[in-house]
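name: query_chain
kind: protein
chains: 1
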Amino acid sequence: MKPTNVAFNSLDAGTSPDKPAASTTTAVVFCGETWSLDSRSIACHEPFLSNLQPIERLQKLKELDLSGTRVSDLQSVATLPALEALRVDSTLVANLKPLYGLKNLRALDLGSTKTSMIEIEKLKDALPDLWIVVPGEK
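structure:
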């Protein structure tokens, strides 16, 4: 059961994430769209997405949904200090160490990943208030 204070609110509510921006001087191109540097919520389900480097400039991002992509490395996600909710279900993610420093992260969906329970336990030690959907829980 998902706690009520967990993020994913705009993604769960069926509303669309922030609308893409028009100019790249104050924006980032990611997942085939141009996003404002002020974007708070992004969902990308592009099946061939693997490079997350463009999101490193989105310092205000609170919700990121990458489910169904080919993402395996979360190093770029580690640069998002405001991130509260991350969905990486049905991805290639296995190593959670890049997330250890995300003190605002409150919700993580790892369903249908190859992440080991050892990795998950280490993350829980680093972020004890984090709510996690573990592989096989969905």
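note: The helical segments are 9-12, 117-126.
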